[in-house]
Amino acid sequence: MTTPRLIKRPKHALAAGLIWLALLLLTAAGQALAQPPQSAADALGADAMAAPRHLAASPDRPLDSLVMGQGPPLVLLTGYAMTKEMWDAGFIKALARGHRLALLDYRGMGETPLDQAADISLASMADDVLRTMAGLGIEKGHILGWSMGGMVAQEIALSRPGAVCSLTLLTTAGDFAPVRPAVDRLGAMGSEEIVASLFPAAWSAAHPEAAGRVRPRVRPLDRTAVSRQYAAMRGWPGLAGRLDKTTPPVLILAGSDDWVCPPRLSEALRDSYAAVPGSDVRLGVLDNGSHWMMHQFPDALAAAVEDFIACRPCPEAQPKQP
């Protein structure tokens, strides 16, 4: 496979959101998900060397978790309507070689129960992540968020900066409003059109095997949880005017062909962090990358994350066993 080029750049309706889930209810080949549930560790192909441990949600650890690997803690936050087994297996395997990964499911997703009485906001999701980190013995760690997970990651850094060694923000934005048109567009698509839109057409034609990397959903979807996530994104105040005098180191990774969250939104996000005196922010754009580019370039993305984190050690982040 051709090595991707990492370009360094200087300084509606709820129904639409739900139809987006057609993407997640199919494999890239269009197969229905009529298969028995499997563990997240099995779905991700985690081997014994990664020492995967599944930890169910509990009162002091509200989010169902999969912990694997050894090294500085790295918490991974999924996107809208996603579950932890839907990360790219190669991406996870590469990161687990040098980090203790914590993969989490939000409330109502995967095996995490939904609190029917509680509203969901990005702030409450951030609080759930922080409480789960504490329950996992992670007092401070690196945070990686994809899409909506990047918004949750930003909220974590705003509410508890002392718990964050660094942020890696993958195909995300500092505000949901400019992303909503893509949700509307997805809502108007049929399932085959959605699958065809995963990767740039020319790239996809040259790499037909990439479609097989997209993980199918293995558990029924809780639409109440998804509708609350959608409302949470719509109600998010965003980053504007909320950054303090200091921020953690920030790596922003975008895809040149991401039509859900175009690179201009990543550039605006970079500029917001760069405006903070003394900030440490980097933006990388992967040529031919889509919103789902972890399935296109898992090794290149993992290397970019690892290189960034390795240059920004966090000695005080010593993971403890829960």
UniProtKB/TrEMBL annotation:
This is Hydrolase. Residues 1-34 form the signal peptide. SUPFAM superfamilies: alpha/beta-Hydrolases (SSF53474). It comes from Solidesulfovibrio carbinolicus. The keyword Hydrolase applies. It holds the Pfam family Abhydrolase_1. Residues 72-175 form the AB hydrolase-1 domain. Gene3D superfamilies: alpha/beta hydrolase. GO terms for molecular function: hydrolase activity.
